[in-house]
Amino acid sequence: MASKIIPWYKRDRGSQVKSDLAYQYSTKRVISLKAAQRKSSSRSRSQAQATATEAMAESEYYTIPVFRQRTREETEGTEEYQRVSTKLEKGLAAIQEELQRMRISTKAQVDSLAIEREVKEKMYRKVDLLEEIPRMPDFIVALRPHTVWEKMPVKLFCTVLGTPRPIVKWYKGGVPVDPLSAPGKYKIESKYGVHSLIISRCVVSDTADYSAVATNSHGTATSAATVTVRRGTGGGWSSQIGIVPRLSGSYFSKLEVSLVHCFPVTFGVEGESASLQCSLVVVPDLPNLLPIIEWYRDEKLLQPGPLVGMSVGGGVANLVLPHLAKDDEGLYTIRVFTKDGTSEHCAYLFVSDATPPVAGAPGAPMSVKAYDISSEYILVAWKPPNTVNEAPITGYFVDRCEVGSDSWVQCNDAPVKVCKYPVQNLKPGHSYQFRVRAVNSAGVSRASRPSHGVTALDAAESTKLEGSHEGVASAPGQPVATRNTKSSVFVQWEAPRHGQEGLMGYYIDARVVGSKDWFACNHKPFKLNRFVVHGLTPGETYVFRVQAVNVFGLSEESQESGPIAVEPALATPSAPYGISLLNCDGSSMTVSWSSPKRCGGSKIIAYYVDRRDVDSLAWKEVNVNGIMDQVCTVDNLTEGTFYEFKVQAANMAGVGLPSAPSLPMKCEAWTMEQPGPAYDLTFSEVRSHSLVLVWKAPVYTGASAVSGYFVDMAKKGSCEFVALNESAITQRYMQVTGLEEGEWYVFRVRTVNGHGIGRPSLVTEAICARPPPGTKEIITGVDEETGDIFLSLEASDISQGSAFVWSKNYKPIGECPRVTVSTKGRTSRLSFMNPDKDDLGRYSVLVTDTDGVSASHTLTEDELNSMLELSHAIRNPIVPLKHGLNYEVLEKGHVRFWAQAVKLSPAVTYRFVVNDKEVTSGEGHKISHDVSTGVIQMIVENFTRDSEGTYTLQIHDGKAKTQSSLVLVGDVFLVGLKEAEFQRREYVRKQGAHFSEYLTFTVNEDCTVMLTCKVANVKKETTFHWYKEDEEIIPETPPNVMSGACALPIPLFSRKDQGVYKAVIGDDRGKDTSIYEISGKIFDDIINAIARLAGESASELVLQCTPEGIRLQCYMTYYTEEMKTVWKHKESKIASSEKMRIGGTSEMAWMQICDPSDKEKGLYTIEISDGVKTHARTFDLSGQAYTDAYEEYLRLKAAAFAEKNRGRVLGGLPDVVTIMEDKSLSLTCTVWGDPTPEVTWFKNEQEVASNEHTRITFDGGKFSSLVINQVTPEDSGKYSINVRNKYGGEFVEITVSVYRHGEQIPDSKMGQTKMATPAVIPPSKTPTPAPSKTQTPTLSMKSSTPASTPKSQTPAPKSPTPAPKSTTPAPKSTTPAPKSPTPAPKSPTPGLKSPTPGLKSPTPAPKSPTPAPKSPTPTPKSPGFKSPTPFGKSPTPVPKSPTPSVKSPTPSRFMKSPTPPRK
User: Fold this and answer.
1) What distance lies between CA 335 and its chain's CA centroid?
2) Which of 1015, 1019, 1124, 1214 is deepest in the core (most CB within 10 A)?
3) Mean pLDDT confidence for 653-678
4) For residue 1126, pLDDT beyond 90
5) What is the pLDDT of residues 436-458, one digit of tens each?
């Protein structure tokens, strides 16, 4: 907003009486500062005129007047004119300066007289009344503190009343002020009740507490204030503490040398190295002529040596300290001799203690020197270290070493308590070095730096140690701390009253306000009573204390200083810049400028604008009273004239330097249709690759409203601007991205309206794309106490005059009811009152009077919603729960209701409500909580049907509360009730013998299914029983309950084993039952478990030929048809049919191809699935394997046909016949054969012919008989019948015994029944084979007496050859067959040798579940034929064939005749 300036001579100049405070500010600003600036301006007026003339000549806005244009001839004669004009200008400037000084002085005197007159008038009004009332002194106007610059006067004044009139005395630090002690320094006045102390030309030592003490007969009153005297910021260390090294000599130099980039305050650590460098600009720069440079530490000239290295060259002067010690701490000064004198720079080097060898040990002593050198002793003295947080020093050890040796010898056995020690027993003429170590209760410190070598000789003169003999010095005075820079504080104090003689210096300590830990500010005693403490945190508040050091040690600590915040010292602001023209109407011009880069530690309170036309050298004030805006409209201008402007800024410290004059600007009315330039371009949020540019709208808008802006950018030094936006933007800010880190850029803004693009703004100063050190971003959050949503920024740099300016969308927020801004220290917070969607946007904050500290944050809807939820939770606090109210059923049927909170305090309260009734802890209910876990619980001991309902837990913890409910009704309640009742029963059950683990199943490696369970709480009397379908099972091994586990084996598991199994355990305490139903899924799981073991043990497929076809067999541990087994031919699943038969035994699975053909060739696969994995075995039935198998099949088929059709005896003949003589014996049998066989009877291997005594018949080709009439003992013998045809035959032997009348029948033969055993006769070319000894056919004869022949229903005798074990028990054999390695399977054609013995299975085959066929007639071995598999004991048993072999169609049984033979 532009400020309208009214000339001072047109303003109301009514009388105005100012107070003393107004007088102080007005005189200080107007007389001291303003006059000083005007003098500085006058002294540089010549240079300003030359600069202005050049600027006017180059300006595109300025046209040189005709009267100033000169021809070449006239130009040559202007030298005299210029000389006269310059002299005249100087005179005019002096006159103007004197007039200005007189005007200010006169105004000050007038103001002072007005104050005195007003005080007189007021005092006269009350003098009569005051004189009548006795009263003690009372300060109406008390002293106030002052901070002034050096060489400035300060006036302390106060007003005191009292009757009688009090006498006022002035004190400085408790000492009376004596004006005669320093003539001209102090002036004490007392007029009209106003008492004043004027201190002229203040110096730093005038900093103190001043007090005025008023006394009369009725009492005393005191008023005190602090005066702080500061030096200018440019004075540096030497001007602040008064250390200025003396010139060591006079050197003449022809070089012009300037110091640039000088070393700053440096911090080092003992044992490390440090380097101090200064860059030099040398003119002329000659390689063989180097500038003369001297280095000083404090006031001592340094010389190159092992501990100090110096170098100069290449435009750099360097001082290197290779091995730092605390002796190296001090003020370092570089002095350069130049053509015009000397140039200096100084800065302090701080050296802190290295890590001690023992924790808590003190630091190393320093400044070890030798005094009183003689041949008898040498007095060694040193300076003690500073002890801040360590234990007090109890003494010192002194070590000596001869020069040239590294062997150190301790000189004193016990620690010496003072900082000096006479070293004796030295060798005269020998040189020594000394070092010192400090001791405290924690241990011994590091050794000090060794002293210089000294020789033990009698010296006529030696340095004497001066010092007090009074002991430790007294404590210094209370330090006074004042602001210096943003990281340092200026501290000064009074010297100790006692012990100043021999004082080595002072140690300064500091601590942060609020902390108890002190830290050392210096590590080497500083001699002066003023010090600049560096390395402090900006914005932090500190207090200081001081200790004096002498040879006897450290004094007591001084009183603490007052707290002081680390802020830069007050200074005048820097010059404004960037003056630009915003509008002109022909009689006035509106100009703007940018605020100063540095405001001097105080807020800018005013701007002062001066102007002049280009034809004049004198500047005219535009405004006498300061203006706050950065825009000013200057009136009463002449149209067509060129004007220049300059601006000065003012703060609490005074008026700063003026800006450089603007370019000449013509006062000409703007009539263009395009808008004027934007102005006040500022930067914020400067980062490595982005920044934000903000500007203000133009004052002159043109013929239409502003519609947008274009932003242009260029690199520093380049004139090629690039537009950053293709289309105009409406907002007055832009975030520029894509910058190169460390690169410098300049910007400008062009304004657009409906008629085009207007004038560009002034180009900004170059800005570097690099964030300020310690840059932080805005953080969002919710206040944990109030629940307010806020944005917060902690500034990395801040000064006393800094302010946080918050903006939304880069428009200052100002006073807004929706937000509040609070600032504490270096942190500012923007809090939202009732945030909603209207508060969304981009928020930014700028910290004034800093190096660009700023940040921004975009508040999005999602982020706001999440913070609103958190804010609601804080404002309406609840106890957060990890788990809501839940329940669980415990043993004995108790029910536990519980909830768990995230955190509980010991003061938590809660209650349980069940069906709207509060439940308390008592009988039937136990309520408790655990603060450590946050669990609150209620145990209901008797949970019944009456417990149905709603359960609620209400929790109160401080301000927070919550509740959680659980509804247990209907089915949900019944589930819990059922579980509670079950647990009650379980509890009762477990009081006696019971099952700890109920029945389940396992499958052993041999595929035996085991039903297992575990029992507990058993005793010897406990019984255990197994049941299936309520029928008890008695296992071979009785269960052992004392082992804790019982099992029931189920071998050869199959579908018949399905059913309900039950195990019952019990004793006198009760019984327990476990029921396990094997059906459905459980049955499938068992089968899958068996299939897994069977599949893993399955052999490869084996080929076996039969008369019916070709069979593929797979042997495994156990096989049952319930297993998921699939046969495939060429990846096609095979279904069981007449062509492809699928079956198995307990030992194998098989698939038979009946009547094979070429179509059945190919790859065959069996797949056994266990529900998870499939086990596959394959056989390739093709090629030679198929050819051999097919030939064997044909052979076996023919042999089976022959076996089926050969001649045979079907039955009716006994093995033994016993008959009485004279009886008739009839041996009759049924024979069969196709074709009809031939029948021949033999007696004792001789053919029997048919006659009257022995008649042979063969009826119908089926029945053959041998009848012996009236047998005699001679008829006894071995009879046999031979039946045969072309396919073969067999013979049967019968033993006949005849006994006489009266003879007893032998007992051994009575009642014995034995079947006749036929002997198989293979087919032969010979129709009737001759019997041999090894093959004796026995004829079977039928007795004529029916009673002598038993019935066919008589049970068959035991087979002589045992059948393999099967699920259906076979009849036991009385005559076991001889064991063989491989038991032969029952073949359809027994007695025939298999042509393919190589196709036998190499793996053990399981037992067959198919019952072995019963053989009615035992078959003896045939000597002419062999079984397909030889008999003998073998580890690889071969199972029986799954199909029964071809049997005789007449399985008749023969019984022994009961008739005894006749003797």
Assistant:
1) 55
2) 1214
3) 91
4) yes
5) 999 999 999 999 999 988 888 76
| Structure tokens belonging to residue 78 | 């202007």
Whose CA is closest to 851, among 773, 739, 747? 773
The whole-angstrom separation of Cα 394 and Cα 391 is 9
State residue 1261's pLDDT score: 81
pLDDT score of 23 more than 70: no
Cα 1385 to Cα 1398: distance, rounded to the nearest angstrom: 15
pLDDT bracket for residue 702 (50, 70, 90): very high
Placement of tokens 């105005």 in the chain: 16
Token representation of residue 1292? 């049967």
**Residue 540, φ and ψ in degrees, nearest 5:** -80, 155
More confident residue, 31 or 963: 963
Q: State the average pLDDT over residues 30-54.
A: 41
Which bin fits 339, alpha (ψ -120 to 50), beta or left (φ > 0)?
alpha
Contact (CB, 8 A) for 1022 and 1044: no
Q: Which amino acid is at 728?
A: A
Instruction: List all residues 6 or more positions away from 223 whose beta carbon is below 8 Å from its beta carbon.
Output: 139, 142, 143, 158, 160, 211, 212, 214
Residue 254 in tokens = 């022809």
User: Do residues 957 and 866 make contact, with C-beta atoms less than 8 angstroms apart?
Assistant: no
Displacement of CA 766 from its chain's centroid (Å): 41
Q: Which residues contact 1173 (CB under 8 A, 6 or more apart)?
A: 1092, 1095
Most confident of 98-102, 453-457, 962-966, 1243-1247: 962-966
Distance between CA atoms of 646 and 591, rounded to whole angstroms?
Answer: 10
What mean pLDDT do residues 885-908 have? 93
Q: Are strands 589-594 and 631-634 parallel, antiparallel or unpaired?
A: antiparallel
Evaluate whether 785 touches 791 at the Cβ level (below 8 Å): no
Confirm if 559 and 478 have CB atoms less than 8 A apart.
Answer: yes
What does each C-alpha distance from 768 to 140, 261, 692, 757 come to in angstroms? 56, 19, 13, 28
pLDDT (tens digit per residue) in 199-234: 987 877 788 899 999 999 888 999 999 888 876 544
User: Which residues have a Cβ under 8 Å from the Cβ of 1095 and sit 6 or more positions away?
Assistant: 1116, 1168, 1169, 1170, 1173, 1174, 1175
User: Per the structure block, which two tokens stand in for 31?
Assistant: 């007389």
* Percent composition of the chain: helix, strand, coil (DSSP 3-state, to 5): 15, 40, 45
> Count of residues for the chain?
1463
Residue 394: closest CA among 373, 414, 372 = 414
CA dihedral 436, 438, 439, 444 (to 10 degrees): -80
Q: What is the pLDDT of residues 154-194, one digit of tens each?
A: 889 899 888 888 999 999 988 999 888 777 788 898 877 78
Residues 1122, 1055 contacting (CB under 8 angstroms): yes
Between CA 1055 and CA 1078 the distance in angstroms is 10
| Both structure tokens of 246 | 């003396």
**81 - beta bridge partners?**
none
3-state secondary structure of 1333: coil
Whole-angstrom Cα distance, residue 140 to residue 138? 6
Tokens of 1175: 């086990």
Omega within 30 of 0 (cis) for the link into 164:
yes
* Closest CA relative to residue 1200, chosen from 1389, 1385, 1384: 1389
**Residue 1200 DSSP SS3:** helix
Q: Please report, to the nearest 10 degrees, the dihedral formed by the alpha carbons of residues 542, 548, 552, 553 taken in order.
A: 10
**Cα angle, residue 1441 at apex, residues 1438 and 1446 outer, rounded to 5°:** 135
d(CA 1290, CA 1074): 62
pLDDT for res 61: 39
What is the Cα–Cα distance from 874 to 958, expressed in whole angstroms?
13
How many other C-beta atoms can be found within 10 angstroms of the C-beta atom of residue 270?
Answer: 22
pLDDT per residue as tens digits for the range 246-256? 656 656 677 88
364, two tokens: 């190393």
